[in-house]
Design a protein that fits this description.
This protein has about 725 residues and is α/β, with parallel strands linked by helices. It has a domain of about 250 residues. It has 29 helices and twelve strands. The strands form four sheets. A five-stranded mixed beta sheet has the order 1-2-3-10-9. Strands 6-7-8 form a three-stranded parallel beta sheet. α4 runs antiparallel to α18. The longest helix is centred in the middle third of the chain and has 33 residues. It starts with a helix and ends in a 7-residue tail after the last helix.
């Protein structure tokens, strides 16, 4: 169904606005208020009042055709003096990390091995349904009641900060009401007078309450990957009631959803790679299907609008309606490479096995690309960096020498491949070093968490995290139920093939000595062409070879065990989040040649998908290899990328593929259906293909916006057919 004339006008306006976004003074104001007006206050109140004042000082933007009020502008902001010690947590944390963590400085020359020393504000989803249910007035009352029951000074500071930020949200909303009345937009003003201050009753009120809090939370917690989560699940009861009362039609609802999606997309229209995910469908706490008419409507609107942001992913419950599975197959084939499907049974099983109760596990969402968290119960450390896993194998082989640039990690604790008599001894030392490296990252996050708790307490956001108000603690003070640290182990399939080839070539089959292999890798196989052919002939993960697949499963499981063995500062776990983003090409650029026969700088595989060069026996064999893995080990989600030949693909065939994958144990299915010839033409003549969308690796983007080495990686992937 094509969108209305009003939506067409909003879409055109928003696209034009994105090219000339109004200046945003929020960050400038935040530091100005902190240094001037509130500099004498205690740190917690200073931060709360500075944040509140910066929010209320933002300009109000309303157009006469708006039915959803408010705009999110984040990128085009004034320059900010970040030297304010109360906010500059990154400098403090980095100084402590280098001083307190042994060998970190040595490893930091390879930031995407040990983990870059950055900090992610986002990749989380809060329980915004609390605003719809209680209103800001109800949440403030909960804080006031909690304050009256405790004498803890820290809790009082926390509750005071929450009340200040909830009041700021009300005040900023009231400024919109005032302008609406000045513009004669009385209908919209009446809705904004009610929400978010008081509980929502209608579908329109629920959407308005959601969006106004979303704008302000995005000021307070501006990182990429902030996720609305289960939007259809929480909004459907309001629409269902309106439909029953004949106060809203499905056509009315669709227009509101279309406007909401355009409004979320507005600030990032030309900034592909910014992913905030809405998951639709899924499972109820009772175990029944949560798919509802709004689930279908949201995906239909998303497909019709031809936007990339927000990302919409479909959760398929174990007892899914057949029409929902058919609908998802059509989305995957005809959604212009924007679909990602998640199977509830296998994801919920993995969460439960890792200590999450079923009633919480069904509330999972994707933060950003596909990071699995529990809505309203997870902190904003769901994704903080990525690690080049085959590079770790390279260091074990060469005793810390980087084949791509000649740098050396002097503190690398490996004897080098040539000094091991057995593969088991080599592998044991390798896994110990992987654990040491990952623990460096986790310890760094402990430090970031400790410092960020003081600098960025996120009072408004945490008012909508389930346990924070109850406990009187922020999300980095012990207030979240699952204080886990997530990161991306990139290239796990490549590392598995690398290790297995070492095992077979050097130790089992005696194809070459360790010294010969190391020399060949250093030479990028120049002069060792025969050896390279022999290495390529060794079975790979992805060829449905039981020995190779069993080894890959052992390696993946060993890495997972390292993650879950770490205990974070408030009792959480390490969380292995497996997707690839644009880093398939980037990780490959940092690699030397590998024992599996790959030349230097070859892009790595996506998620847990076998490498393109390893899927020589067809997609069925590749899926068999992939689902031979123990997916219950993957508590942060494990994505796969299946690029399909456009001349071969259709919804019926794709449905058979992804349901086989899911029934055999897989978690997340995505891919592309674009003809490679079209991609090559777009690379050569980008002006002719401005809106050609592709699935990159956990997110979708317009192909012509991507860097050439990322485009080349997408073009070079295997295209599966019969």
């Amino acid at each position: 169904m094509p969108y209305s004339e009003r939506i067409s006008k909003i879409r055109a306006f928003s696209q034009a606005l994105a090219k000339n976004e109004p200046e945003n003074t929020y960050y400038y104001d935040l530091h100005r208020f902190a240094k001037n007006q509130f500099h004498s206050l205690d740190r917690s109140e200073k931060i709360a009042r500075s944040t509140a004042s910066a929010i209320k000082n933002q300009k109000i933007y309303i157009e006469p055709f708006d039915n959803i009020i408010g705009r999110v502008f984040l990128f085009n902001h004034k320059s900010v003096d970040m030297e304010d010690p109360d906010f500059d947590h990154i400098t403090e944390a980095r100084e402590r990390i280098f001083a307190e963590i042994e060998d970190y400085a040595d490893f930091a020359q390879f930031p995407f091995v040990v983990g870059d020393t950055h900090y992610s504000f986002g990749h989380m989803s809060w329980n915004w349904n609390a605003i719809l249910k209680y209103g800001t007035s109800g949440l403030k009352k909960r804080c006031e009641d909690a304050m009256s029951r405790t004498d803890d000074i820290t809790s009082h500071e926390y509750y005071k900060g929450v009340i200040i930020l909830l009041t700021a949200l009300e005040d900023w909303n009231d400024l919109h009401v005032k302008k609406l009345l000045e513009m004669g937009m009385e209908k919209q003003a009446k809705i904004c007078e009610k929400v978010p201050r008081y509980p929502a009753e209608t579908f329109h009120e629920a959407i308005q309450a959601f969006f106004m809090q979303y704008i302000v939370v995005m000021r307070e917690n501006p990182g990429g990957g902030n996720s609305p989560g289960r939007l259809d699940y929480y909004l459907w009861p309001y629409l269902e009631r309106d439909l029953a009362n004949n106060t809203c039609t499905m056509e009315d609802a669709r227009e509101l959803i279309e406007e909401l999606f355009i409004r979320i997309n507005e600030r990032v229209w030309d900034k592909d790679g910014w992913t905030e995910t809405i998951v639709v469908g899924g499972t109820n706490p009772s175990g029944s299907s949560a798919v509802n008419p709004l689930s279908y409507l949201m995906i239909e609107a998303f497909m019709e609008l031809e936007i990339i942001h927000p990302a919409l992913y479909a959760r398929i419950p174990e007892n899914s309606p057949n029409e929902w599975i058919d609908f998802c197959a059509d989305f995957l084939v005809n959604g212009k490479n924007r679909a990602q499907l998640l199977y509830d049974k296998t994801i919920i099983e993995a969460l439960c096995k890792n200590g999450v109760p079923y009633e919480d596990a069904v509330e999972y969402y994707c933060g950003g690309c596909m990071e699995i968290g529990i809505q309203g119960k997870t902190n904003n450390y769901l994704f903080n960096t990525w690690h080049n896993m085959p590079k770790m194998v390279e260091f074990a082989v060469t005793k810390g020498l980087s084949l791509s640039d000649g740098k050396v990690i002097k503190s690398y604790r490996s004897k080098g491949l040539e000094n091991y008599d057995t593969f088991d001894e080599f592998y044991s030392d390798f896994i110990k070093e992987v654990k040491r490296i990952l623990y460096m990252f986790f310890k760094a996050q402990d430090i970031y968490s400790e410092v960020a708790d003081k600098a960025y307490p996120r009072y408004l956001l945490t008012s909508m995290i389930d346990d924070c108000i109850k406990l009187g603690k922020g999300m980095h003070s012990g207030g979240v139920r699952y204080p886990d640290y997530g990161s991306l182990p990139i290239g796990l399939p490549d590392a598995a093939d690398y290790l297995f080839a070492i095992k077979k070539a050097v130790y089992d089959d005696k194809v070459c000595t360790a010294s010969e292999l190391v020399d060949a890798l250093k030479a990028n196989f120049e002069g060792y062409e025969l050896l390279r052919k022999q290495l390529i002939a060794i079975p790979k993960y992805g060829q449905d070879n039981s020995e190779a697949d069993s080894f890959a499963n052992k390696y993946f499981s060993d890495v997972s065990d390292i993650y879950t063995s770490y205990v974070t500062r408030f009792g959480g776990k390490g969380k292995m989040v497996i997707f690839t983003f644009t880093w398939a090409a980037d990780a490959g650029m940092d690699m030397g040649a590998t024992a599996s026969g790959k030349l230097a700088h070859t892009p790595v595989a996506h998620g847990v998908t076998p490498h393109s060069s390893s899927m020589t026996e067809g997609i069925t064999a590749a899926i068999n290899s992939c689902t031979a893995l123990d997916f219950t080990k993957f508590n942060g989600g494990a994505s796969t990328m299946w690029d399909l030949d456009s001349s071969w693909v259709n919804p019926t065939l794709v449905k058979s593929l992804f349901m086989t994958f899911f029934k055999n144990g897989g978690q997340i299915f995505q891919g592309n259906t674009t003809d490679v010839k079209e991609l090559i033409a777009a690379q050569q003549n980008p002006e002719n293909f401005p809106n050609l969308m592709v699935r990159v690796g956990g997110f979708s983007a317009r192909f012509v916006t991507l860097k050439k080495h990322v485009q080349d990686e997408i073009i070079g992937r295997i295209r599966h057919n019969c």
